[in-house]
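Listing 4. Sequential folding, example run.
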Amino acid sequence: MEEKNIVMEENVKPSNFIHDFIDEDLAEGVYKKVQTRFPPEPNGYLHIGHAKAICIDFGTAQKYGGTCNLRLDDTNPTKEDVEYVDAIMEDIKWLGFKWDNVYYASDYFDYIYECALKLIDKGLAYVDELSPDEIREYRGTLTEPGKESPYRNRPVEETKDLFRRMTEGEFENGAMVLRAKIDMASSNINMRDPIIYRIMKATHHRTGDKWCVYPMYDFAHPLSDAREGVTHSLCSLEFENHRPLYNWFLEALEIPEAPRQIEFARMNVNYTLTSKRKCLKLVNDGLVSGWNDPRMATICGMRRRGYPAPAIREFVDKIGVSKAYSVIDYALLESCVRDYLNENANRAMAVLRPLKIIIDNYPEDKVDEISVDINPNKPELGKTTVTFSKEIYIEQDDFMLNPPGKYFRLCPEKEVRLKGAYYIKYASHETDENGNITAVHCTYDPESFGGETPDGRKVKGTLHWVSVNNAKDITVRLYERLFNVENPSDEEGVSSFADNLNPESLTVLENCKIDASFADFKVGDTFQFMRQGYFCVDTDSSDDNLIFNRTVALKDSFVKKV
């Protein structure tokens, strides 16, 4: 079994070998500029792995004052949709990057087709009528060479005629393909006469019904790069074995100033699933609410959960760029999110599981106004005012009748401090017919306002609270990791996904309370709820039902499944 390196260090930034290669190319005059591209296929939503590629492609161009284009690899019309194109553009902009131009592989269909004809004329391509199963059989294995198709040496004019007829729609899907003529005995299976065009009678989202043959990715990709003037084609490591083919097409077609392909290791984050096929299964089977479910590792899901774009960029930066296979601990991503929000998120007073506190000796008509920092790390934002009254809410787990040792919150034996307000002591409590505590009566020290007392006594417990007379109801969704296993991609089938789902990945709390002073929110706003964590206003919110998603807890609370 391949050993996996779990990357958890937060302060180690590996060197960027891609930039080392580019420095050499520029110094040797191979290229006079740097141009990159981000080339996703518009057949699904971008995920955390794409975030790494985006940062590398756009970041490299930025470093060298070059150009980075967005190119949608739309060579498979049966799987692509404008919905995905729009989502990809939104995600890139949200991450903080701006492309220089937007291109599509379909922009080059005429050019790519002409390149295919050129290969045919040079005797380097042929129309093959073997079935897909026969092509796989003839290709051989990793240890055994392939064998040549009986159609491999058909005359150039015959191949040109058949390819023309394929293009005109004379043949059905799968009847024949156009293959490059390279080497069926090559040790690299990608070089064994790869398919470069196939018949696909499908309407394209941009070209309509103009074409019924479409180029394969391995053929379209280097030609699209060359057509755009890309100097460095940066891609993930699974394309390393495709690089000889990439270069073969450029050399065979005599492309001047050909791009250089450089591969880097993909981003593998534990407890996440990024396979588009498997993510679609989760969506279709109702195991998540959609591609933007805040538990998904999609960029739109992380955005909805409240992950800030700068934190994701910092996460990618900390991981660095290498060719070594590694698995990144999800806790590092959460740590980057937590660090950013600690500095930048405004504070709010909220109680998630409210317990009413009645302060018996607090005057009925008395109301205290208490100033609290909007963000203690940004004093320029100033303060806001919350009110304190006779009845307040605290968290249910901030009170116990029979507490264990070292319990420093409200209980019959201990005095506690209310954040920014007074010291209170337990007096009595009320219960319902089932014995559940419904309210706690306390007394307060009028001379302890602000946490200082004339006698100088101190308490260890400080509780957050919300005044009953200024409380607004909210709904809170508490999110944890979706899976209990470190690598759900290793699991086969949707039933195994269901078996390995974390049953506590979503908890919905109704009738939570927030001080109305903080209630002027809009979708996407993120706050620190004191002592609770960081929360984001969800897209499902309305004026009558404000919904918050927990972005991340104040500290890592996830317990691995044993």
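-- end of first protein; second protein begins --
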Amino acid sequence: MRLCKSLILLLLSFLPLALNAQISHGGSPMSEQLAGVNALRSGSDEWVRMPRLDTTLLLAQEGERTVRCGGERFAYAFPVDLSPENSGAIYHMADGTAVWRLHIVSEGAYSLNIIFGEYELKGEAQLFLYAPDRSAILGSFTAENNSPSGVLATAPIDGDEVVVELIIPKGSDAKLKIESVNHDYRGLRKTPSYGTAAACQVDYCEVGGHELQARSSVVYIVEGVEYCSGNMINNTRNDGTPYLITSSHCLFDRNDNFVESKAAKSVFFFNYAKPHCLDGVRASTEMSVAGSEVAFKLVSSDALLLKLSDRPPLDYEVYYAGWNMTKSFEAPFYDLHHPNSDVLKISVEEDNITLGSFDYNGLFKANKHWVVKNWEMGIMEGGSSGSALFDAQGYILGSLSGGAIEESCNKPGYDTYWALSEAWSEGIGRILDPEGKATTCEGMEANAVPCQRLTNWRSEDLLHEMSEYEEYAAGHNQANLDEYAERFRTGKEKSVLYGIHFLAYKGYYEEQHPVLLRVYSGDTLPKEVILEEPIQMVTNEYKTRSGFQTSPVNNWEMRDNYYRLSQPIVVDSTFFIGVKLDNESEKYFALCHTDISDMRLNTAYFKNDTQWYPFEGEHPYYPYATSLFIEPEVQVGCAVVKTVDYVTDASSVCWVNNPVTESVRVQFPTNTKLISYEIYSIGGERMAHVEVGKDLSQLEFEMAYPAGLYILRLVFDSHVESLKLLKR
């Protein structure tokens, strides 16, 4: 992407993002229940069609543009004014529930995403967005997704149709208005997520180290039509405030004006990296948070600090990176980035950096940027504006603004990062160091008991390559085996399971014949099923524009899929995770598995009739030791005694029963010094203040307030935390 004269902004291009991503709160649409129910407006009113878009002209205009500001554009925004008052069909159920449904079509779109300019749900109201075949569902979104901006931006859904469904039970209410329907004309997930970067780029996984800093990396969609990137960053209070450091030009319009409202209309994605350095495997993109606000901006140096609308859930494994606001640091320096929509890469500079300037139309002041003259490993490509520059200690020094257009593998150029040291006294220092005493800050895990991605994968293992005529060992096959499981051992009495990553040779969602996820108790073999639910994720992806309607690709195929459980569950020190297949399905599903040489290392099992067997020595097609490619997200050693909802706002809290009915119970991972706690209404009124002043492993109190959303403020001896509670 070219800027004025000889400069290029390094902006994130066409990153393939998944849908089953945003923080949701369970439930399902009511589309089936509406059959036969009379609508307030006719069924034809359900349909809204966007004007036909001349994508050829749009692409030609983009190619002719010599100066582009803001993020990398992938979609066209149709301004609309759609609400239950003026569009769609409204159904009234016998129990008093009202359902608003709107079917949006924008012919020829690769994907659609929607921005709600007004979003306020009350009581038990729920919002869903889904593909017409229900292969992809976003939601439910509830009152817990309300934000001060009143805006909700959503992740894209594949295809040129999306259904919006608002469910309002009796006694609940909602204000909802769609202000923008965004038509993806580039092909959001069309480009492969590997092999698109220059040949001299280096996969982050090949180098090793910097694992914590990698977990701070974020990619985000701006206003439904552009991309940029950034990093989660810590503050000296270590309170887990979800600050993201990035570059202000990512929120520019096409006239170089900073547009603050774009922050609320952004969706942030986490953990886009290649699993186990496997070539040909797409990285996971199923983790996101919608919405943010500007905490600090300094357009004259390109500096920007955003505050996300919610703390990323603990199963996202987020790390808040540390920082250094001085001019004293040591080489080497490095940047973790996504050039040309590829998986996470690393660039390394062995020499010292210098303070210099980034000349973009005279907009940025002189000597406000760190200059990297020549990377010893990797380069920067069109891809990652806002990505952080780290020093040898893993501290953030600033974020990427731009560089030289000559940059390539054969002719590298320079790159510039707005300097944290030069923006410190302008106001960002008061946010990241409220006490005004620190010059550096250590990084921090987002949670006191962080989630871990458990794996039975060993560095010497190889992914089993299927031959053309080979039967699937962990999927549909001629032997009609239909149930498989992988064993995990944590070494702790109790842990909490939040979701699973899985890699499949074949597979996608079928409503009539779903693949069932099962979690089993047991020690040496799977025993009792303690959880069963259908795996439902994104299904369709298209290789070419001409194949949009007729050539669907199984979206689970050779991709690091992450399926988040509808609710976390407690597991013992040994447990099993597996799949139950429907052999009536006409579509194949098969898990990937490993080739290993040591027969003692088998962790995979299959079921034949009513009996479980280990793979080695027993399996009809693969009688060898192996591991199935299933990897759970687990909070190891957290002493949970009952099933709980997700905790999205706590770092020193193990869990809290949420939603709340009669009482609140908060579990801490260890004895924790709690000074006091307070309860506030969502409007800010303090409802209660209770002094505690002692070490606790558990806090319990009555919640004698009307139904609604509340804030629980916990004052510890070292910091303060706030949790949202929904009282039913």
